[in-house]
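Structure first, sequence second, as always.
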């Protein structure tokens, strides 16, 4: 049941993933290297975020083979996403506020178009 609770918590988390996808991929490769080097933090990350490692002691985690997909899952969950696909998809969308900033920038120079009541807004309105 711990796994299901973790999944629900992850799904409800506000995900703020706006880094370069290559950085997340590099983090996953580093996690694999750190697992091979038997570094404690790597073992703990895998035990905390990969379901089939839940409840294992660190020596059991280090004795296990870890795939790149498992490392990606741990990286995704470490960053508040429930899956690697969420990181990948989230990073394809524009940065929050980018659309708003673009609209504000475009609106500074003149007519922004009609408002709901049909009047124009912008520098030409007197």
């Amino acid at each position: 049941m711990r796994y299901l609770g973790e999944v629900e918590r992850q799904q409800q988390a506000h995900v703020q993933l706006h880094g370069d996808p290559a950085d997340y991929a590099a983090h996953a490769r580093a996690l694999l290297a750190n697992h091979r080097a038997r570094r404690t933090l790597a073992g703990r990350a895998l035990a905390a975020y990969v379901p089939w490692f839940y409840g294992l002691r660190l020596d059991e985690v280090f004795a296990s083979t870890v795939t790149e997909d498992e490392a990606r899952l741990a990286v995704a969950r470490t960053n508040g996403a429930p899956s690697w696909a969420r990181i990948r998809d989230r990073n394809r969308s524009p940065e929050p506020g980018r659309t708003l900033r673009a609209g504000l920038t475009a609106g500074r120079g003149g007519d922004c178009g009609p408002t709901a009541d049909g009047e124009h807004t912008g520098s030409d309105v007197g």
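Margin note: The longest strand covers residues 113-114.
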